[in-house]
Amino acid sequence: MTDKPTVSVLGTGIMGAAMARSLARAGHTVHAWNRTRAKADPLAADGAHIARTPAEAVESADVVLTMLYDGPATLETMRQAAPALRRGTIWAQSTTAGLEGLAELAGFAREHGLLFYDAPVLGTRQPAEAGQLTVLAAGPAEGRDTVTPVFDAVGARTVWTGEDGAAGSATRLKLVANSWVLAATSAVGETLALAKALDVEPGGFLDLIDGGPLDMGYLRAKAGLILDGPLSPAQFAVSTAAKDARLIVRAGEQNGVRLDVAAAGAERMERAAAQGHGDEDMAAAYYASFDQPPA
Q1: How far apart are the C-alpha atoms of 161 and 134, rounded to whole Å?
Q2: Which of 47, 137, 183, 223 is deepest in the core (most CB within 10 A)?
Q3: Where are the alpha helices (DSSP H) in the chain?
Q4: DSSP string, 53-87
């Protein structure tokens, strides 16, 4: 085994494509697959080998990295890959699958003798393209020498949360972090919507809190997208944010916690998606505050 394992990337959407490019840039041999091949084909220019099927993508892989929409999509893809998976192959599962979804994926890994790493990431399109994600990882010590160069290629930092990927410690931390991100995003949109409704200049609000404890970079970034754009290409799409919000609400319910803000945030994202903003940045949930598009 070299320090540059061959990596199969299954799922080349916003995040998966950026991670595949980071891996190729770091000198890894990369095999990429996506259900819609047109999203994978541009990676050939970065040196990736584009596979026709999940099985073709994984047949020579030391590490399989999944970054798909949700748990069911990931399980379906891995079932398609199963005939070519070798026992002992490392599986770094980076999809935000939720606790129930993760349990099913870990069961698949046990059934097929894979070394399973629960490895969601924090960050959006821009840090992904720069290889500056934060990787939240849990998995066995025996495979870390192999998987660490993969995490180092896609991220600026790896936070290890445990040695049992199936226990879900990394996914639990990701859900907590995403609950804050989604709540903050909804708060930005609602604040600017209220400002518009009350004929308050948004710049006046931003000047009011400038440099104080209520100010933060995330507010500035999302407010900038709402006020000035562009909302496409998305850093984190509305439809994906809605899916993650539902996973957060479900995790709370399963553990006896009522998450009213997360539930309202999920409804808000879903309403924005129904208005046609599903593929735009999640800041576009701003439009969910209006029955008609604001002037």
Answers
A1: 13
A2: 137
A3: 14-25, 54-58, 71-81, 98-111, 125-129, 144-154, 169-197, 202-209, 217-228, 238-254, 260-272
A4: SHHHHHTT-SEEEE--SSHHHHHHHHHHHGGGPPT
Q: Is the bond into 72 cis (omega within 30 degrees of 0)?
A: no
In whole angstroms, give the CA distance from residue 40 to residue 32.
Answer: 7
- Mean pLDDT of successive 10-residue stretches along the chain, which has 295 residues: 84 96 98 96 97 97 97 98 97 97 98 98 95 98 96 98 97 98 98 97 97 96 96 95 98 97 98 98 98 84
- C-beta separation of 98 from 74 below 8 A: no
Tens digits of residue pLDDT in 68-97: 999 999 999 999 999 999 999 999 999 999
Instruction: State the DSSP H helix or E strand holding residue 94, giving kind and residue range, or none if neither.
Output: none
First-to-last CA distance in the chain?
60
| Residue with token string 């996973």 | 247
Angstrom distance (rounded) from CA 9 to CA 50: 10
Alpha-carbon span 7 to 147, nearest angstrom: 10
Contact 95, 112 (CB under 8 A): no
- Collapsing DSSP to helix, strand or coil, 281 comes out as strand
Q: What is the dihedral of CA 73, 75, 77, 81, to 10 degrees?
A: 180
* Cβ(94)–Cβ(67) below 8 Å: yes
- 3-class DSSP assignment, residue 112: coil
